[in-house]
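W.,

You were right to be curious about this one. When I first looked at the sequence I had no strong expectations either way, so I just let the prediction run and decided to look at it fresh. Below is the sequence, 191 residues in total, followed by the output.
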Amino acid sequence: MTGLPLPRDLEAPVGELVHELAEQLGVRATVDLCVELIQGADRNDHPDVMPYLTGVVFDEESPIFYPAQWKDYWVRTWGARGLLYVWDDVAGPAVVAGLDDDHWRPAEMCLKVSTKRELGEAGPRAAELAVVGELPRVRTQALRTLGAVGDTEHVELVRGLLDDEEPAVRRQAARSLTQLARRLDLDVPEP
């Protein structure tokens, strides 16, 4: 892709920038681009769209904003984040696959997208990440996902995290347990 103008306002929230990109490319093309990025596309193949996904104009002269300075996991994260603002169901499999990313940032962002887009297929991996995620923020987001898309087989796992060592994880486990009970019409005692 070449020839896109810079966003109207680089300081606009990323959601606005992504919507502006979708106005120019179309929603489906923007979703397809985000999927490519989640799957590891080279950022250098998309220099004109990166400002819409990041709010940053990458410049080879700048030691801070030169593309090589940013790790590849950021590109996968930005691709996933774009799907918080534009969506087509064709992106679902890539988002679920992104839950297995080697780096926590893209995996966490794919959890956020799974929650927002209510991707039931994310439930099994979200359950794993709720337990084995190294960072409390990943475990917390995995619990949010389970609250939104989990099923009856996740109730006991979520209940078990009411005793997690991290307060944020415990709080989210309580919220997710309540959400699961309400969503699935289960008689689950209050935490």
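Here's what jumped out at me. Residues 1-117 form one domain. And, maybe more interesting for your project: The chain has two domains: 1-117, 122-185.

Coffee later to discuss?

I.
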